[in-house]
Amino acid sequence: MMQLMLYASTLITSIILFKMNHPLAMGLMLLIQTIQISMLTGLMAKSFWFSYILFLIFLGGMLVLFIYVTSLASNEMFSLSMKLTTISLFIFSMILIINILLDKSSISFFIQNNEMQSIYNLNMFLQENSLNLQKLYNYPTNLMTILLMNYLLITLIAVVKITKLFYGPLRPMN
Amino acid sequence: MLMMFYWSLPCFLFLMGVFVFVSNRKHLLSMLLSLEYIVLNLFFLLYIYLNLMEYLSFLGMMFLTFSVCEGALGLSIMVSMIRTHGNDYFQSFNVL
Lengths: 174, 96
Fold this sequence. Notes:
A: mainly alpha; B: mainly alpha
Protein backbone atom coordinates (compact mmCIF):
# COMPACT_ATOMS: atom_id res chain seq x y z
CA MET A 1 0.00 0.00 0.00
CA MET A 2 2.86 2.32 0.82
CA GLN A 3 4.54 1.56 -2.46
CA LEU A 4 1.33 1.94 -4.39
CA MET A 5 0.76 5.35 -2.85
CA LEU A 6 4.31 6.30 -3.80
CA TYR A 7 3.72 5.09 -7.36
CA ALA A 8 0.53 7.12 -7.65
CA SER A 9 2.19 10.22 -6.23
CA THR A 10 5.10 9.92 -8.69
CA LEU A 11 2.59 9.78 -11.51
CA ILE A 12 0.84 12.87 -10.16
CA THR A 13 4.17 14.68 -9.80
CA SER A 14 5.09 13.94 -13.40
CA ILE A 15 1.72 15.21 -14.61
CA ILE A 16 2.10 18.40 -12.56
CA LEU A 17 5.65 18.89 -13.89
CA PHE A 18 4.25 18.72 -17.40
CA LYS A 19 2.19 21.85 -16.79
CA MET A 20 4.86 23.93 -15.04
CA ASN A 21 6.43 26.96 -16.63
CA HIS A 22 8.62 28.62 -14.06
CA PRO A 23 12.06 27.05 -13.37
CA LEU A 24 11.63 27.37 -9.60
CA ALA A 25 8.41 25.37 -9.68
CA MET A 26 10.06 22.77 -11.91
CA GLY A 27 12.90 22.54 -9.42
CA LEU A 28 10.42 22.04 -6.61
CA MET A 29 8.73 19.25 -8.56
CA LEU A 30 12.11 17.67 -9.28
CA LEU A 31 12.95 17.79 -5.57
CA ILE A 32 9.64 16.12 -4.65
CA GLN A 33 10.21 13.50 -7.33
CA THR A 34 13.71 12.86 -5.97
CA ILE A 35 12.31 12.29 -2.47
CA GLN A 36 9.70 9.89 -3.82
CA ILE A 37 12.11 7.93 -5.98
CA SER A 38 14.65 7.66 -3.19
CA MET A 39 11.91 6.31 -0.91
CA LEU A 40 10.92 3.80 -3.59
CA THR A 41 14.48 2.61 -4.18
CA GLY A 42 15.03 2.37 -0.45
CA LEU A 43 11.96 0.20 -0.10
CA MET A 44 13.16 -2.09 -2.89
CA ALA A 45 16.55 -2.86 -1.39
CA LYS A 46 17.62 -3.76 2.08
CA SER A 47 19.45 -0.58 2.91
CA PHE A 48 18.81 3.08 2.27
CA TRP A 49 22.42 3.86 1.25
CA PHE A 50 21.71 4.36 -2.42
CA SER A 51 18.67 6.53 -1.85
CA TYR A 52 20.67 8.66 0.58
CA ILE A 53 23.37 9.22 -2.05
CA LEU A 54 20.75 9.99 -4.71
CA PHE A 55 18.96 12.51 -2.52
CA LEU A 56 22.19 14.30 -1.55
CA ILE A 57 23.34 14.54 -5.17
CA PHE A 58 20.07 15.93 -6.46
CA LEU A 59 19.71 18.31 -3.50
CA GLY A 60 23.14 19.69 -4.32
CA GLY A 61 21.99 20.23 -7.86
CA MET A 62 19.00 22.21 -6.62
CA LEU A 63 21.18 24.81 -4.86
CA VAL A 64 21.97 26.47 -8.18
CA LEU A 65 18.30 27.38 -8.52
CA PHE A 66 18.38 30.05 -5.83
CA ILE A 67 21.13 32.17 -7.39
CA TYR A 68 19.44 31.65 -10.75
CA VAL A 69 16.06 32.85 -9.54
CA THR A 70 17.45 35.79 -7.57
CA SER A 71 19.57 37.01 -10.47
CA LEU A 72 17.77 36.08 -13.68
CA ALA A 73 14.11 35.23 -13.28
CA SER A 74 13.32 37.52 -10.39
CA ASN A 75 10.27 39.16 -11.90
CA GLU A 76 8.32 36.15 -13.04
CA MET A 77 5.23 34.87 -11.34
CA PHE A 78 4.27 31.28 -11.07
CA SER A 79 0.90 29.94 -10.12
CA LEU A 80 -0.52 26.52 -9.54
CA SER A 81 -3.87 26.21 -11.22
CA MET A 82 -6.85 24.87 -9.31
CA LYS A 83 -8.01 22.72 -12.21
CA LEU A 84 -4.71 20.87 -12.40
CA THR A 85 -4.79 20.15 -8.67
CA THR A 86 -8.34 18.82 -8.93
CA ILE A 87 -7.46 16.54 -11.85
CA SER A 88 -4.37 15.29 -10.00
CA LEU A 89 -6.30 14.46 -6.84
CA PHE A 90 -8.94 12.74 -8.96
CA ILE A 91 -6.34 10.53 -10.71
CA PHE A 92 -4.64 9.76 -7.39
CA SER A 93 -7.87 8.63 -5.75
CA MET A 94 -8.85 6.70 -8.89
CA ILE A 95 -5.62 4.72 -8.82
CA LEU A 96 -6.07 3.90 -5.14
CA ILE A 97 -9.72 2.89 -5.57
CA ILE A 98 -8.92 0.69 -8.60
CA ASN A 99 -6.15 -1.01 -6.66
CA ILE A 100 -8.40 -1.68 -3.68
CA LEU A 101 -11.15 -3.03 -5.93
CA LEU A 102 -8.79 -5.29 -7.84
CA ASP A 103 -6.58 -6.48 -5.03
CA LYS A 104 -8.10 -6.45 -1.60
CA SER A 105 -5.12 -7.96 0.13
CA SER A 106 -3.00 -4.90 -0.53
CA ILE A 107 -4.72 -2.80 2.12
CA SER A 108 -4.20 -5.19 5.00
CA PHE A 109 -0.71 -6.09 6.05
CA PHE A 110 -1.57 -8.36 8.93
CA ILE A 111 -3.01 -11.24 6.93
CA GLN A 112 0.15 -11.74 4.91
CA ASN A 113 2.79 -14.28 5.70
CA ASN A 114 6.47 -13.82 5.09
CA GLU A 115 6.53 -14.70 1.39
CA MET A 116 3.71 -12.33 0.63
CA GLN A 117 5.56 -9.59 2.47
CA SER A 118 8.54 -10.19 0.24
CA ILE A 119 6.28 -9.99 -2.81
CA TYR A 120 4.86 -6.69 -1.70
CA ASN A 121 8.29 -5.37 -0.90
CA LEU A 122 9.15 -6.16 -4.54
CA ASN A 123 12.48 -7.83 -3.94
CA MET A 124 11.15 -11.21 -4.86
CA PHE A 125 13.65 -11.87 -7.62
CA LEU A 126 16.70 -12.58 -5.56
CA GLN A 127 16.90 -13.59 -1.98
CA GLU A 128 20.30 -12.00 -1.58
CA ASN A 129 19.93 -8.65 -3.26
CA SER A 130 21.43 -6.57 -0.55
CA LEU A 131 22.95 -4.25 -3.19
CA ASN A 132 26.46 -4.31 -1.90
CA LEU A 133 29.20 -2.25 -3.41
CA GLN A 134 32.17 -4.48 -2.81
CA LYS A 135 33.17 -4.54 -6.46
CA LEU A 136 33.74 -0.83 -6.43
CA TYR A 137 37.22 -0.98 -4.96
CA ASN A 138 38.41 -4.44 -5.90
CA TYR A 139 40.80 -5.22 -8.69
CA PRO A 140 39.14 -5.76 -12.04
CA THR A 141 36.59 -3.04 -11.55
CA ASN A 142 38.47 -0.44 -9.55
CA LEU A 143 39.86 0.80 -12.85
CA MET A 144 36.36 2.14 -13.53
CA THR A 145 36.51 4.01 -10.23
CA ILE A 146 39.84 5.53 -11.25
CA LEU A 147 38.24 6.50 -14.57
CA LEU A 148 35.46 8.22 -12.64
CA MET A 149 37.96 10.18 -10.56
CA ASN A 150 39.79 11.37 -13.68
CA TYR A 151 36.51 12.27 -15.34
CA LEU A 152 35.45 14.35 -12.33
CA LEU A 153 38.79 16.17 -12.33
CA ILE A 154 38.59 16.90 -16.07
CA THR A 155 35.02 18.11 -15.62
CA LEU A 156 36.12 20.45 -12.83
CA ILE A 157 38.85 21.94 -15.02
CA ALA A 158 36.48 22.22 -17.99
CA VAL A 159 33.81 24.01 -15.95
CA VAL A 160 36.33 26.50 -14.62
CA LYS A 161 37.67 27.10 -18.14
CA ILE A 162 34.18 27.57 -19.59
CA THR A 163 33.00 30.04 -16.97
CA LYS A 164 36.21 32.05 -16.87
CA LEU A 165 34.88 35.24 -18.41
CA PHE A 166 35.97 38.67 -17.26
CA TYR A 167 33.23 40.63 -18.95
CA GLY A 168 29.48 40.72 -18.54
CA PRO A 169 27.47 40.46 -15.34
CA LEU A 170 25.31 37.55 -14.27
CA ARG A 171 22.06 39.38 -14.76
CA PRO A 172 19.47 39.67 -17.53
CA MET A 173 19.91 42.31 -20.18
CA ASN A 174 16.83 43.23 -22.11
CA MET B 1 -1.39 -5.02 -9.52
CA LEU B 2 1.93 -3.86 -8.21
CA MET B 3 3.84 -5.95 -10.71
CA MET B 4 2.01 -4.19 -13.50
CA PHE B 5 3.49 -0.92 -12.31
CA TYR B 6 6.89 -2.37 -11.62
CA TRP B 7 8.65 -1.91 -14.95
CA SER B 8 6.20 0.38 -16.66
CA LEU B 9 6.32 3.21 -14.13
CA PRO B 10 9.94 4.35 -14.84
CA CYS B 11 9.29 4.05 -18.59
CA PHE B 12 6.18 6.23 -18.27
CA LEU B 13 8.03 8.78 -16.15
CA PHE B 14 10.86 8.80 -18.68
CA LEU B 15 8.38 9.51 -21.47
CA MET B 16 6.84 12.33 -19.44
CA GLY B 17 10.32 13.81 -18.98
CA VAL B 18 10.94 13.60 -22.72
CA PHE B 19 7.63 15.37 -23.39
CA VAL B 20 8.59 18.13 -20.97
CA PHE B 21 11.96 18.38 -22.72
CA VAL B 22 10.56 18.74 -26.22
CA SER B 23 7.72 21.08 -25.29
CA ASN B 24 8.78 24.61 -25.96
CA ARG B 25 9.91 26.28 -22.77
CA LYS B 26 11.02 29.82 -22.18
CA HIS B 27 14.24 29.35 -20.23
CA LEU B 28 17.23 27.13 -20.80
CA LEU B 29 17.20 26.07 -17.15
CA SER B 30 13.82 24.43 -17.68
CA MET B 31 15.37 22.23 -20.35
CA LEU B 32 18.26 21.37 -18.01
CA LEU B 33 15.85 20.53 -15.20
CA SER B 34 13.85 18.26 -17.49
CA LEU B 35 17.10 16.55 -18.47
CA GLU B 36 17.80 16.01 -14.76
CA TYR B 37 14.29 14.58 -14.46
CA ILE B 38 14.99 12.14 -17.32
CA VAL B 39 18.26 11.14 -15.63
CA LEU B 40 16.44 10.53 -12.35
CA ASN B 41 13.91 8.23 -13.96
CA LEU B 42 16.60 6.40 -15.92
CA PHE B 43 18.43 5.86 -12.64
CA PHE B 44 15.24 4.40 -11.21
CA LEU B 45 14.95 2.01 -14.16
CA LEU B 46 18.61 1.06 -13.86
CA TYR B 47 18.18 0.45 -10.15
CA ILE B 48 15.27 -1.92 -10.77
CA TYR B 49 17.34 -3.69 -13.40
CA LEU B 50 20.37 -3.97 -11.14
CA ASN B 51 18.20 -5.51 -8.46
CA LEU B 52 18.25 -8.61 -10.63
CA MET B 53 22.05 -8.76 -10.75
CA GLU B 54 24.06 -9.72 -7.75
CA TYR B 55 27.13 -7.58 -7.38
CA LEU B 56 26.70 -5.00 -10.12
CA SER B 57 25.09 -2.18 -8.19
CA PHE B 58 28.20 -0.02 -8.43
CA LEU B 59 27.08 0.70 -11.99
CA GLY B 60 24.38 2.88 -10.43
CA MET B 61 27.12 4.92 -8.77
CA MET B 62 28.84 5.28 -12.15
CA PHE B 63 25.58 6.42 -13.74
CA LEU B 64 25.03 9.02 -11.02
CA THR B 65 28.59 10.35 -11.39
CA PHE B 66 28.34 10.72 -15.16
CA SER B 67 24.94 12.41 -14.90
CA VAL B 68 26.26 14.87 -12.31
CA CYS B 69 29.25 15.72 -14.53
CA GLU B 70 27.01 16.36 -17.52
CA GLY B 71 24.65 18.48 -15.43
CA ALA B 72 27.58 20.59 -14.25
CA LEU B 73 28.78 21.04 -17.84
CA GLY B 74 25.30 22.15 -18.95
CA LEU B 75 25.07 24.65 -16.10
CA SER B 76 28.51 26.07 -16.95
CA ILE B 77 27.43 26.50 -20.59
CA MET B 78 24.31 28.30 -19.35
CA VAL B 79 26.36 30.64 -17.14
CA SER B 80 28.72 31.39 -20.03
CA MET B 81 25.79 32.15 -22.31
CA ILE B 82 24.19 34.47 -19.77
CA ARG B 83 27.39 36.42 -19.30
CA THR B 84 28.01 36.86 -23.00
CA HIS B 85 24.50 37.28 -24.39
CA GLY B 86 22.47 38.63 -21.50
CA ASN B 87 19.64 36.15 -21.18
CA ASP B 88 18.95 32.47 -21.43
CA TYR B 89 15.82 32.48 -23.52
CA PHE B 90 15.49 29.33 -25.54
CA GLN B 91 13.79 31.12 -28.41
CA SER B 92 16.92 33.10 -29.21
CA PHE B 93 19.18 30.12 -29.82
CA ASN B 94 19.06 30.44 -33.59
CA VAL B 95 20.49 33.95 -33.33
CA LEU B 96 23.68 32.78 -31.63
